Amino acid sequence: NAGVTQTPKFQVLKTGQSMTLQCAQDMNHNSMYWYRQDPGMGLRLIYYSASEGTTDKGEVPNGYNVSRLNKREFSLRLESAAPSQTSVYFCASRKDGLLYGYTFGSGTRLTVV
Amino acid sequence: AQSVSQHNHHVILSEAASLELGCNYSYGGTVNLFWYVQYPGQHLQLLLKYFSGDPLVKGIKGFEAEFIKSKFSFNLRKPSVQWSDTAEYFCAVIPMNTGFQKLVFGTGTRLLVSP
Q1: Which residues of A touch B102 (CB under 8 A)?
Q2: What are phi and psi of A100, to 5 degrees?
Q3: Is the minimum CB–CB distance between B39 and chain A shorter than 8 Å?
Q4: Residue B95's pLDDT is what?
Q5: Residue A67 — pLDDT band, cuts 50, 70, 90?
Q6: What is the pLDDT of residues B28-75, one digit of tens each?
Q7: Which of A91, A107, B37, B57 has a Cα-to-Cα distance from A76 of 20 to 30 A?
Q8: Rounded to whole angstroms, how far apart are CA atoms B98 and A62?
Q9: What's the CA gap between A43 and B104, in Å, rounded?
C-alpha cells in the first residue's frame, strides 16, 4: 500500500549514542517533514524538506540533523542522544498544492536512558 | 507567538453524548484547517479539512467542524459519540502567508468515551 514508512518502530538508546531514523514515501511527494510528539505538547516540527536537496529547520531542531537523500527518503539523525529526546517521532509527506493534507507514518517510539 | 490552542486537554463522555472540542488559532490571513485523530497505538489520520467555501465541513465517522473566521475558531463536533471514538484529537493549521506552508498542531485533546 502506498504511504509513509518509518523504521524502526521502537528504539532504546543510551545517553550519548547516535542513531538515524529512516523515512520513505512512495507517493512522489515533494515535501517531507519530521515531527516529535510529546504528552501535552502536541506535535512539533523538527525539520522539513520542501523538495529533494533542500532542508530547513522547524520549531525544535536542536540536537537533530536531517538528510533528504532523494525524493523518496528523508532521514533524521540524533548525533548524541539525550533523555530530553525521548519521544515519538513521526515522518510525514505532502503533495504540492493547497488541496492536499499530510500523510503520516506510523511513528518511531524512542527512549533515551 | 502565533499558535493553535485547544482548550480542553482531557474530555470524558458517556456513549451517545454530544461532543464539541474547541480549537482557536492566532494566524491572520488565509489558513487551511484540519482535524486529525490518533487512536491508541496508531498514527495520525485525517478527520476533516477546510480550505474554502462552506464553513461547515463534514468528515469521516460522523464528525463535522465549523470554521468561524471572526472568532479564529474551528471547533469539532459529533452529535453522538461512541466508545470507538476514544482517541486523541489534534487541531492543525497551515497559515498560508508564511512562505513555505507548514502544518502547526495544537496540543491535543484526549477523549475518553465510557460505555
Answers
A1: 33, 45, 48, 58
A2: -120, 135
A3: no
A4: 86
A5: very high
A6: 888 999 999 999 888 889 999 998 899 999 999 999 999 999 999 999
A7: B37
A8: 22
A9: 8
Cα-based distances in Å from B99 to A46, A63, A104, B107:
17, 25, 22, 23
Transcribe A22-58 into DSSP letters: EEEE-S--SEEEEEEEETTTEEEEEEEESSTT--EE-
> Distance (Å, rounded) from C-alpha A87 to C-alpha B49?
27
Return the DSSP state at A17: -
Q: What angle do CA B65, B71, B77 make, to 5 degrees?
A: 20
Q: Mean pLDDT, to the nearest integer, of A51-79?
A: 95
Identity of the residue numbered B90:
F
pLDDT band at residue B2, thresholds of 50, 70 and 90?
Answer: low
Of A33, A98, A105, the CB nearest to B51: A98
C-alpha cell of A15?
Answer: 545517553
Q: Scanning the structure block, which residue is given the C-alpha cell 478527520? A: B47
Minimal Cα–Cα distance from A68 to chain B, Å?
Answer: 17
Decide: A91 and A72 in contact? Cβ < 8 Å. no
Distance CA(A97)–CA(A94), nearest Å, equals 9
Q: How far apart are CA A62 and CA B31, in angstroms?
A: 28
